[in-house]
Design brief:
Shape: globular
Number of helices: 4
Number of strands: 14
Distance between the termini: 36 Å
Structural class: alpha+beta
Radius of gyration: 26 Å
Largest sheet: 5 strands, antiparallel
Number of domains: 2
Order of helices and strands: HHEEEEEEEEEEHEEEEH
Strand order of the largest sheet: 1-2-3-12-5
Helix content: 25-40%
């Protein structure tokens, strides 16, 4: 890819007229050469973009506070052709956790394009019971409640919006806590067993979706916390236009500039 960037630098210099200092005839010749280089640059970018299509990543974080204290979470999205992986994490420290109201219980996000047909789904994450004094005892299983397994939790797709939720279908469990070997300040809402097991550390969900590509992104995501859920934090995704799409648009601008320069010297 370095050759493409080197050509981009050369094209940019010529488009600014830094090498056009030899009269009208030379200007026309160089403009023709410049167009050839621009088309070569765009072709190189297209080849690189095609090769880079297998996967793209996006990280969205949310911070705030609720009646039980500080809140923080992240959703790490990986998009591939026909697949979407979401890793959901509680970003608080173990010592900060006091109540189940600080656990992550829901993620709802909107895709930039229709998700298509749903295929297989899977969930991964460490389940654990939190005992007296905040002790952690790992248990078997995976956080499939977030995928609506057994009529528990909630998983749904409505238009371009996907919801993963531990709430619903009875008493909630599999709420997400941060990584930690103990939660020394946790109260009875965590140590009492009524919401056990929890997910200790990140939970990862993989969805086969026919409409998802490496170009898919997330313009909006909402994180929910607590057993109600109690608190909602909505976060916009990053603004599109950076990276390769921005570079391609810039090359189009350089080509238009070259054409204007040629007309001015005609």
């Amino acid at each position: 890819m370095s050759g493409v960037w080197d050509l981009q630098d050369q094209v940019s210099q010529e488009a600014r007229g830094e090498t056009y200092q030899h009269g009208t005839s030379d200007m026309r010749t160089l403009s023709k050469g410049l167009k050839t280089k621009l088309f070569g640059l765009l072709a190189g970018i297209s080849i690189y973009a095609s090769a880079a299509q297998p996967a793209a990543a996006l990280l969205i974080t949310a911070t705030g506070s609720g009646s039980d204290g500080p809140l923080a979470a992240s959703a790490d999205f990986t998009f591939g052709n026909g697949s979407l992986t979401v890793t959901l994490s509680n970003l608080l420290s173990a010592a900060t956790i006091r109540s189940a109201g600080q656990t992550v219980s829901d993620l709802s996000f909107t895709l930039s394009n229709p998700p298509g047909t749903l295929g297989t789904t899977s969930a991964a994450g460490q389940l654990a019971n939190i005992g007296s004094g905040g002790s952690v005892t790992n248990v078997a299983g995976t956080p499939t409640r977030w995928l609506g397994a057994g009529g528990q939790g909630d998983f749904r797709i409505s238009g371009n919006t996907i919801t993963l939720e531990a709430i619903g279908g009875g008493q909630p469990d599999q709420l997400i806590l941060p990584s930690g070997s103990s939660f020394p300040n946790a109260n009875a809402s965590i140590t009492g067993g009524q919401f056990s097991p929890f997910v200790v550390g990140p939970a990862t969900f993989t969805l086969a979706l026919s409409g998802v590509t490496a170009a898919t992104t997330v313009p909006l995501a909402t994180f929910s916390f607590g057993t109600g859920p109690d608190t909602f934090i909505t976060v916009p995704g990053p603004i599109a236009g950076a990276g390769l799409p921005g570079l391609i648009a810039a090359c189009g601008g350089l080509l238009a500039l070259a054409r204007r320069r040629r007309k001015q010297t005609a």
